[in-house]
Amino acid sequence: MSEYEDDEDDEDDEDDENQLNLSAENTLNVIATIILIVGIIGTLVCCFTIVFVEQYGSKVLSIYGLIKTIGLLMGTLTMWALLRVFSNISTTLKKINEKRS
Q1: 23-35 burial string, b = 16+ CB within 10 Å, else e?
Q2: DSSP states of 5-60
Q3: What is the distance between the alpha carbons of residues 77 and 73, in angstroms, rounded to a whole number?
């Protein structure tokens, strides 16, 4: 085994030891993405079902349905953003803690 190969093996060992366990943060990011996708699909479904309702044989805009749909979209975006922020905060704190130790 050459000296170069020994140095390469040492670097691999150091990389394995320095890797952070970010499985919880990755899970939060996946959940946030799922919430965003489901929320957007739900918003589109609401747009076609409760925003435009049939009244007297024609489609009419329902203000209450529009308010509910906008609320659903805003709630979805808020949950997605909060989960992403929590994940990023946790990742940053782990990196800072790793540098200190």
Answers
A1: eebeebbeebeeb
A2: HHHHHHHHHHHHHH----HHHHHHHHHHHHHHHHHHHHHHHHIIIIIEEEETTEEE
A3: 6
Per-residue pLDDT tens digits of the chain, which is 101 residues long: 555 555 555 445 444 445 678 888 999 999 999 999 999 999 999 998 999 888 888 888 899 999 999 999 999 999 999 999 999 999 999 899 889 87
CB 80 within 8 A of CB 32: yes
d(CA 40, CA 28): 18
* Inter-residue contact 40 to 75 (CB < 8 Å): no
3-state secondary structure of 61: strand
